[in-house]
From TrEMBL:
Residue ranges constituting the Trichome birefringence-like C-terminal domain according to the UniProt record: 120-405
GO CC, alphabetical: Golgi apparatus; membrane
Transmembrane segments: 12-33
ATP-binding recorded as keyword: no
Record's bilayer topology term: Single-pass membrane protein
Chief place where the protein resides: membrane
Pfam families: PC-Esterase, PMR5N
Signal peptide span: none
Organism: Arabis alpina
Entry keywords, A to Z: Membrane, Signal-anchor, Transmembrane, Transmembrane helix
Name this polypeptide is given: Uncharacterized protein
Domain Trichome birefringence-like N-terminal: 64-117
Amino acid sequence: MEFLHSTSKQKLLIVVTIAIALFTVIPIVYSFAKDPNFLLKQQQPPSQINTIIKLQNDVVTTNENCDIFSGEWVPNPEGPYYNHTTCYAIPEYQNCMKFGRPDTEFMKWKWRPDGCEDAVPVFDPWRFLEIMRGKTMAIVGDSVSNNHINSLICLLSQVEYPMDTSVVPGYRFKRWTYKTYNFTIATFWTTFLVKSRPNPTLPRLGDDLFDVYLDEVDERWTAQIGDFDYVVMSSGHWHFRASIYYENQTMVGCHYCQLPNITDLTILYGYRKAHRTALNAILALENFKGVMYLRTFAPSHFEGALWNEGGDCLRKQPHQRNETQDETTIKLYNIQLEEFRRAEKEAKKKGIRLRLLDTTQAMWLRPDGHSGRYGRLPEAKGRSDCIHWCLPGPIDILNDFLLAMIEREEDKGSLAQVR
């Protein structure tokens, strides 16, 4: 009898053990089957998991007057969240640490909005990809936009690397797909936002001269973005290049063309006209159900001389917030604001979601974050790059802002606003 009693106790123990194991394993297996990145998520620090912004009555719960784009950079000893050895997507000219940049403090800052510090949390790649499950995003612009895309891919590499699903060769029109999330990013290269081409005939010494058709859309991107869920459009530094301006297929003037008998209308004329044409193209899209963001100008920080005359960017600290922006940056930024507000009125009438990704102040305060002379081998000759940004570096904030805005859009639906 004692033997039978002992055997029964052993059987009961086995049954209990199996039951406990099943109750422990089944939820994990179910979660993994539902989301293959489930186990990776458990490694995310708690501080980066529970930072999702929630809206109540169209305002952020932390501060109803929060303007996430007004603030200052504060030290962040926990950064960066990737580096040149963990992310393959860093191009050579943005790979500052590979090419020997000696200081690392430029990677250890984060943005703190005024009065609402938690409104722009550290970028959460799991949260971003979950929101983007089954969606598409297009980023439209020039090489600074490519800089932005590379930052996003590196931040998301903590979760998953995308597959290159491009349909044309080259880097100007690429697509990447995150298979686990069925999320696709596309890049559309456009230097002036409007139709343009190198001018092959007019004689000019020095840099290239471009024909810019200020009233004609660049159909390479405008004809393809109608089905995207999110579109980020920007334009900037190419407008500084020497250009012949056309309207109604007729030459109306130029910017810095240095040609006789042609009126110099200045960069401001071309910048305004190009933005107006591009925004009008958005307003003309039929059945566009996505969200369009206009990202404001990301300034360069050449000091000591012009970009082509030995100018450099050697600062090791951010600007103080009271540092005055250069006059041209202020004027270009104001043009973007004015054209955005004009288009926004019409967008509201048509039910188009047009938003402002107002990044100029944050990027102006970071003269320390450019590639400079560290986008090539030390012995290689060339100009310092004070336009593009080291990766990791300050440009990662564009994705912090973008996620904060998308969360507001998703949490409150089509009427959510950032400001």
